[in-house]
Structure formats: structure tokens, C-alpha cells
Amino acid sequence: MATSSERAEPVSRVARRKAQTRQKLIDAARVLLAGDTASTASIQDITDAADVGFGSFYNHFTSKTELFEAAVRQVLEQLGQLLDTLSIDADDPAVTFARSVRLTARLAVARPQTAQVLVRHGMAYIDADEGLAPRALRDIEAGAAAGLFTVGDSRLALAVTAGALLAVLHMSLVSPDKVTDATCDEAAEQLLRMLGVPLDEAHRVATAPLPDVSAVDEV
Fold first, then answer.
1. Assuming Cys at both sites, which of 16, 116, 149, 215 could form a disulfide with 144, CB separation 3.0 to 4.6 Å?
2. Which run of H or of E encompasses 106?
3. What number of CA atoms fall less than 13 Å from residue 77's CA on the CB side?
């Protein structure tokens, strides 16, 4: 007679296969979003790209819209979790904010597919409750509470931050040779100055050493 653990194993394998199929669909969606072909892709196109059966799609998503929203949210949340890890030793809200801007820009510039997804669809998630937006809002509000930032409307500051970051990523896609690490740092410095940080301090914070991201997995 099979033990309880042996009876549970097939269920576990089924769950893993379902998770793998869902991720394949999301991966295919991310490629389509980056290539700006999502609007014209059929469900058959998506399942072909994901190398899964057509019927598998509806086991995970009710529509293309739901799938593409899940794909964008995953990109944003993965970046957010990565920034949390890389900023774990920063107890200064200004440092945390600048580091997040600089690292997000660097990581996305180095990953054109991620940059494409963010540029084309990121602004629609500026008020999302997961991903980059709530983390940036947290840092802005923490900086204001600590007296480091001068902020009237924290959500407006968040919107301006998002717009500046997406503009840098757009530049990186249009003219890759003109967007360097120094460009990312300058964007962070300008945002710090917008938030009321004095010029010299903004420059110091925006050019401070960053955590090593050379071994960071693809986002």
C-alpha cells in the first residue's frame, strides 16, 4: 500500500508541470510585449511560441489581456525583489532611492527585452500595488519623513521618477551607445535634486559605490 508521501508525489509533479506551463506562457508573452507584437498575436501564436498545447492556455488565463498583464507584473516584481536584495544594507532613504534608480536603469539597459517591456507598458503600472512603484513610493515617503526630501505630493514625485526612468530606458533603446552607467547616475542625481537634496549631496549619493550586480540572474 502506498504511503501518504508517495500518494502526494504525483500531485506535486502535476503542480510543477502546471507552474512550468504557466511560466512558458508568460515568457512567450514577455517576448511578444518586447517586440510590440502582443496586440496582433493570437492565442495560437502565443501557445506555439511557448511550445505548449492550445488548450493549456485556458488552464491558466482567461484572455490575452490577463496573460500580458501577468507578464508585465512579473517583470516589475522581479526587478523590485532584486532591488530589495541589493539595497538591504542601506539605511538612508536617499541612498536607497538613488541606488534603486541607478540599478534599475543599469539592469534594464543591459537587458533590452526588459527595457522594451518597461518602456511600452511600465507607465500603466505606476499606481500598481506590487513591483517597482510601491517600493519607490515607500522610499520617497521615507526620505520626506526623515527630512531629506522636500515633497508636496509623494505620488506626483513617484510619477516624475517613473517618467524620468522610462525616458532613460527609451534613450538606451534608440541610441544604446549614448546611455552609460554615468547616464544612469546623472538621472538619479537630477531626481535627488528635484526632491530637494542639495547639489553636492545629490552628486555624492548618486555616484557612491553600488553593490556588485555582475552575477545577477537575467530579469
1. 149
2. helix 93-110
3. 9
Q: How many CB atoms lie within 10 A of CB 126?
A: 18
Query: What pTM was computed for the model?
Result: 0.81
Q: Burial code of 143-182, b = ≥16 C-beta within 10 A, e = fewer?
A: bbeeebbebeebeebbeebbebbbebbbbbbeeeeebeee
pLDDT in tens, 2-12: 555 455 556 68
pLDDT digits (tens, 9 = 90+) for 27-72: 999 899 888 788 889 999 999 999 999 989 999 999 999 999 898 8
Q: What is the DSSP letter of 211?
A: -
Alpha carbon of residue 128 to chain centroid: 12
Q: How far does CA 142 lie from the centroid of its chain? A: 21
Cα angle for residues 197, 200, 204 (degrees, 5° grid): 90
Take residue 48 and report the three cell numbers written for it: 506555439
Q: Would you state the cell numbers that stand for residue 21, as one nine-digit string?
A: 506551463
- CB proximity list for 70: less than 8 A, separation 6 or greater: 26, 29, 61
Q: Name residue, grid cell 540572474.
A: 217
Give the separation between CA 135 and CA 217, rounded to whole angstroms. 21
